[in-house]
Amino acid sequence: MTASPMLWLSSAGQRLSLATNHQTHEFAALWLRERAPDADTLDPRTGQRLIEAAELPLDLAVESAERAGDHVKLRFSDGHVTDFSLQDLLAACHRADTIVPGRTLWDSRLEEPPRANFAAALQDDAALLAMLEELHRTGFVLVSDVPTQEDGMQALIDRIGPLRHTNWGGIADVKSVANAYDLTMTQRGLEPHTDNPYRDPIPGYIWLHCLTNAADGGDNTLVDGYQAALALKQRSPEAFECLTRIAPSFLYHDDTTRLEGEGPLIELDSHGRVARVRFSNRTERVDALPADELEHYYAARQAFYRLITSDELTLHLKLEPGQMLIMDNYRLLHGRRAYQLSGGIRHLRQGYVDRDSTASRRLVLRQQLSAHQRQEVSA
After folding, report:
1. For labeling, which of 15, 179, 205, 226 is most exposed (least CB within 10 Å)?
2. Which residues are 84's β-sheet partners?
3. pLDDT tens, residue by residue, 220-256
4. Residue 218 pLDDT
């Protein structure tokens, strides 16, 4: 922001322009009125809107805009007066990011995985916030010193939770079993994938806890799906566009459950930014679209597959007993190498925690700890 941002009205007051040293932002008068931060418009406790925005006159205008330090005072044609901070106005502006904000991209050159300690995150809010911030930023975190009991990760989930229950229960085994109901429960290698795209909502975060891992092979693979999507966009814009447009179905069924969902392999948010990736070769089903459209889709999917299986983007690690991976299932593609039980047992446990509760915990902790730090400074 410049020392003195410029303000002016246009379109008979139905537009407010704010110019900084970087660019000019334009705000609609109706948007400013319904987003007014005062207690007559927003409930001070809940932040929920008190006025009926749909009843505001469509020709509502800003009659005056006056700069006062780092705030701007607005008077509207309905007589309402409010005060915005310039920082809040600029923070609300649409940004031309290519991925959802606040993320750090990575590939196989990532030297050190983000780490957290189980006991520290369990006992200390600052350590828990650091873990959640890293998970949000990087898409995964490797947690050490998790109790090697079957539900050893439950206590930390309860600090964030709740645990998502599915037809498989809560925390479930990931090990080779006879008559496996899912290929995860076999010894075969698994291609990079996201979990459960056939559910609604799709599980937000995967918690994968290692109890023992003495089998030969079975190393985990991780790929940053955002990085892969942007690499595809750069190298083949047509393939990228195709995978954001065509939405295959994803199916799962067993004796007691039938699940079906759909969505594009690369999903954009309302601003055109990459927000989610899906990939599940085992469960994907594409409709019988026109042949030429399917040809484009298959070529685009193959190009994306070659990226997510490439040495360029793939990170390898083998979980040890007492380690746990927490993974963003909207972003990360994970897989594993095939393994043989001749070397010993491979037993992992897995659970899901949804996105809303995880984001809420992070944001509340951030607010609480920031307020506490301000109090300490002013004391």
Report:
1. 179
2. 72
3. 999 999 999 999 999 999 999 999 999 999 999 988 9
4. 66
Q: What are the backbone dihedrals phi and psi of residue 329, each rounded to the nearest 5 degrees, phi first?
A: -80, -5
- Give the residues across from 286 on adjacent strands: none
- 115-364: in CATH 3.60.130.10: yes
Two tokens at 376? Answer: 């300490």
- 285 token code pair: 């089903």
315's tokens: 């990170």
Q: How many CB atoms lie within 10 A of CB 174?
A: 18
In terms of DSSP H, where are the helices of the chain?
29-34, 86-91, 118-123, 125-138, 154-158, 225-235, 237-245, 291-308, 355-378
User: Under the phi-then-psi rule, with left for phi > 0, alpha for psi from -120 to 50, and beta for the rest, what region is 114?
Assistant: beta
The residues with which 275 forms a beta bridge, in sequence order, are none
- The answer to whether residue 309 scores a pLDDT higher than 60 is yes
Structure confidence at residue 345 as a pLDDT band (50, 70, 90): confident
**CATH number, span 6-91:** 3.30.2020.30
Q: What is the 3-state secondary structure (H, E, C) of 257-291?
A: CEEEEECCCEEECCCCCEEEECCCCCCEECCCCCH
Closest by Cα among 262, 191, 270, 272 to 233: 272
What average pLDDT is seen over the chain?
A: 91
